[in-house]
C-alpha cells in the first residue's frame, strides 16, 4: 500500500508527481530544487545557498513522511556543473553523520528543471 506525502513546508510539485511516496517502511522522495516554499521563488544567490535550500526542502519532505536524515539510505544528486561539487558536498555533508552517511551518486547533467544548478532526491527507511 502506498501513501502520498505532501507538505506545504516544501515546494509544491510543478508536474504530475508528489513530493514523496511512502510504501511500507520506505519513503521515496521526488527531487527537490531550491524553491523557497513560502515565496515560490528560486534561491540562486550562490551554490551553497542554493544547496542549503534544497536540503531544507528535503528535510521538510522527510519530516512529513515521519523521518529524518538519519533514515536516509540512498541519495541521488544531479548537478549542472561538476566544478560546484566540493561546495555542494560541503553543504550536503553538514546534514549527515559521516559514519552513517547514506549511499550516493552525483551526476553532472546538461540541464535541470527551471535551469537550477542542483537537484537532490532520497530514499529513506524506518
UniProtKB/TrEMBL annotation:
GO molecular function: deaminase activity
Transmembrane segments: none
Similarity field: Belongs to the RutC family.
Official protein name in the record: 2-iminobutanoate/2-iminopropanoate deaminase
Domain of life: Bacteria
Lineage: Bacteria, Pseudomonadati, Bacteroidota, Flavobacteriia, Flavobacteriales
InterPro entries per UniProt: RidA (IPR006056), RutC-like_sf (IPR035959), YjgF/YER057c/UK114 (IPR006175)
A Gene Ontology cellular-component term: cytosol
